[in-house]
UniProtKB/TrEMBL annotation:
SUPFAM superfamilies: NAD(P)-binding Rossmann-fold domains. One of its GO terms (molecular function) is nucleotide binding. Pfam families: GFO_IDH_MocA. This is Gfo/Idh/MocA-like oxidoreductase N-terminal domain-containing protein. Residues 33-108 form the Gfo/Idh/MocA-like oxidoreductase N-terminal domain. InterPro entries: Gfo/Idh/MocA-like_OxRdtase_N, NAD(P)-bd_dom_sf. It comes from the Eukaryota.
Length: 110
């Protein structure tokens, strides 16, 4: 953000109750170590919510050309990646990208 390369940072999961701990960890490992680091991030769902479909709200809030990095259980990769791709976002997915060949081909075609 200091170099105007990154604007919004979002974090998405199922259980928002985990986000305060994650933010504390980021502060300890990054914010307290490096000067002038803006660790502000939006979270989906909110800190007091549980929502298995929070990725839909997150993807809807970002713009075409934004990036989604998907670190979720393997069986959720396809639905989340496809949602983001259909919204014009770039995606990076941890391996395995998907569990079925037909899902891989569908993502490649999208």
């Amino acid at each position: 953000r200091r170099r105007s390369k990154v604007n919004r940072v979002g974090m998405c999961g199922v259980n928002g109750k985990k986000f305060p701990g994650i933010r504390n960890h980021m502060q300890k490992c990054i914010g307290d170590v490096y000067a002038d680091m803006d660790l502000t991030c939006e979270t989906f769902p909110g800190d007091d919510q549980v929502n298995p479909k929070a990725y839909e709200d997150a993807a809807a809030s970002f713009k075409e050309g934004d990036v989604a990095v998907i670190f979720t259980p393997d069986d959720t990769h396809f639905a989340i990646a496809m949602e983001c791709i259909q919204r014009g976002m770039h995606v990076m997915v941890t391996k395995p990208i998907v569990q079925k060949l037909e899902d891989h081909l569908a993502l490649a075609k999208a």
